[in-house]
Amino acid sequence: MRVFAVLALFAALALPAAAASLQETLARFAANDFSETAKAIDEIAESGAPQAASLIDALLNRRLAVTPDGGVFFTDAQGRAFDALTGSPVAAVPKGAQLVRTNNKLRGQIENSLGTLRLQAPDPAKRREAAEIVLRARDVSALPAVRTALSREQDPVIAKVLRETEAALVLSRPDATTEQKTLAISILRARSDQDAIAALRAATAGAPFAIAQEARRAIVAIEKRLEVQAAMQNVWYGLSLGSVLLLAAIGLAITFGVMGVINMAHGEMVMLGAYTTFVVQEVFRAYAPGAFDFSLLVALPLAFLVAGLVGIAIERGIIRFLYGRPLETLLATWGVSLILQQAVRTAFGPTNREVGNPSFMSGAFDLWGLQITYGRLWIVVFTLVVFAGLLLLLKATSFGLRMRAVTQNRRMAASMGIPTARVDALTFGLGSGIAGIAGVALSQIDNVSPNLGQSYIIDSFMVVVFGGVGSLWGTFVSAFALGIANKLMEPVAGAVLAKIVILVLLILFIQKRPRGLFALKGRAVES
Amino acid sequence: MITRMIVSALGDRGSLVFLGLLGVAALFVALSNLLLPPGSALHVPIHIVALLGKYVCYATLAVALDLVWGYCGILSLGHGAFFALGGYAMGMYLMRQVGTRGVYADPVLPDFMVFLNWKELPWFWHGFDSFPFSMLMVALVPGLLAFVFGWFAFRSRVTGVYLSIITQAMTYALMLAFFRNDMGFGGNNGLTDFKDIVGFNVQAQPTRIALFLISVAVLALTYAVARVLVTSTFGKVLVAIRDAESRARFLGYRVESYKLVVFVVSACMAGVAGALYVPQVGIINPGEFAPANSIEAVIWVAVGGRGTLTGAALGAVVVNAMKTTFTSGLLAPYWLFMLGGLFVLVTLALPKGIVGTLQGWFAKRGEAKRVETSEPSPPPEAPAAGKAESAS
Q1: Number of domains, chain A
Q2: Cα distance from A283 to chain B (closest Cα, Å)?
Q3: Helices marked H in A320-419
Q4: Which of A392, A442, B119, B142 could form an SS bridge with B82, CB 3.0 to 4.6 Å?
Q5: Quick one: which H or E segment has residue B192?
Q6: Which of A266, A338, A348 best tests the B interface by mutation, with the highest count of B CBs <10 A?
Q7: Transmembrane segments in this chain: where (chain B) (predicted)?
Q8: 8 A C-beta contact, residue B97 and residue B195
Q9: Rounded mean pLDDT of chain A?
């Protein structure tokens, strides 16, 4: 509230002075002479009058007219008429008014001054954007406008950008003093990005030795910082990829790691989860478009149920006949995966289906120079929650206890009265269900097509094997390690080569430690 | 001595029937195409000859796979990679033969290299203008990869599903690599637009028939080599390793050496099969490395009956004939249902495959009559299939 009051006061104080000079400026249009118009444009740009931008815009688009008695009027894009002096609307442009002529040279000047005028636009985002544009263009003539804007700027963030812009312009001016330039260099050094480097580099040419030296030092410092920042950004991408890998692999860590069942249809469970999301969103779009943001919340339990039930059906129908025959299980579940893919293709068509992002998952924010998208952030958070929930389920519930008992010693567990067959089915259902909710998350960042699962299956197996079969923490570490290693290598080697290198390294690693990073200790001679 | 070994290996009823049928079928196809008028009911059109040639190459791959999986328990999900490597070696030879007849008419560089603005031939393309060198590479490159891969994997005792998964990762990595344009193998498009093979037009009818007959001969030879291997003492050790690896090791056999030899031999066979496949289908591209292809080859063996060799060849032909029939026309959308169902059905209901089941049936019926036991028994079968691979 107080801010507005201060703003209003400023406006009230500034207005009469501006209006006085504006009157003289506008009188120049009456001459309808190119050189007079050019002067007028510059004066308007520096006047800071609220209607300045629309006035110059009108001039550019031949909507500015002068009446014989010296009145200046303009219309906006919608055709509403305004008095140029006061900026207030009028009924219509008076009869007999003449359009002010422009030529190519003027138009160039108009566009420049429009750029600086936007520095005073009422919308802060536009002001900031304009400042950045001027900074990049380094048009020295804009310096007065930048200074005017700076003196009026209330928003500290934009003021900072303006100061940086001013610094960049000062550096480009041959007549600036050494102190001014040194200050400018330190300001740009603090800004520390590619634009600052460009401005500094321009300053090194033809500058006195001390200044050039200072600028070069600043460039080196900035480059070093940028490198660290790029590495941090890659680590973040790696974390994000790692969480995707973990999501896809975590269900497999249960079925393969804990139960020892090779489920090649695991990827298809992920796919089923993604398609469940699609169906839920379609229902929301049709019946409750307002509540679209909640569609994912509804999709999560449904995806768990759908994939889990399909998983239980597979376990009861096929896998239970194949316990102890891992290679046969592999083949049979591969067959299941083909059937599921084709079923989805028949039901939903072979092309990608559109899955929307809820509003809380779109957009991005800036953290110490890192670009972080909300979608990725939520997926990382979601993955951690799922992982923690799973650990809790395994370690702190009676179902988890039974599950671990059955996997460690089936016969003993059976003698203690644990229904092993049911635990098997439920465990498989749990692993598949988790793959299903992974599908909900992956539908947000990947194409939802019948081939969705195929692209994850090899990676998921690699993650589980690398981490150590049967170790959930191993899967956790391995997913993030692989994700980060992949993303750190990508800028050097390219995406495909990075992936190949990772695969080859993994193959070599398995030779060295066939049981993975965190092998379960046991006395079995054979796998 | 060696002759006797070969005679005793190939003298059993299964081998004689298999080789005999193969020879008769090959001769019939070739002669009917050449001699019978196109209108005749028995005439085999040339595109069918090429199709059958493709099946025969698949059958060779299946026999190679059966050698390692059926007899040594190594479930390789990467045999498609060896097949494709052999194919690429042949493809490189065929590309060099194109010469100035390519679109860009460069005497040395294949079209795709000119297109990518390459100035000279990469080092690994040298020598492929020579047919004998290329044929050597056809077997050598897959063999070398298998040797290096097997050397590491078997020595560190990576077994069972772990081995399967890393073989799958291997073929996947190769697929990604061959999709890259900078690799120098034509990237996405692979190698195609072949003209000549040893001076004969690959498209011409006599060449196609010759290629078909050579493929059949190679299948027969592959079968014979595999059969001699598995009936020898070496083969007995392989089966011992399959059924009880640590027991074989404790008995003093160098398990990893046996595995390595059979893996390399099998990879070379797969490479040769791939080399014959390429001129008959006219293209080789990175899609051949797809993990799904390798798994499909496994199902051919499973359908026909693993550990039977003849079954593997039969399975390859039967499944691919089904594929050809069902992927065209009305039933096309349902082919994957059928293929998937086949995977499930065979593993659940027919673990020994077609030939294995038949053999078991014959053996049971013959048991009552037969007194003599020294008769070369039908190829060893996995006892109750399941115990073959111990649980992980």
Answers
A1: 2
A2: 27
A3: 326-348, 374-396, 398-408, 410-415
A4: B142
A5: strand B191-192
A6: A338
A7: 16-36, 42-61, 68-90, 131-154, 161-179, 209-239, 260-278, 298-319, 331-350
A8: yes
A9: 82
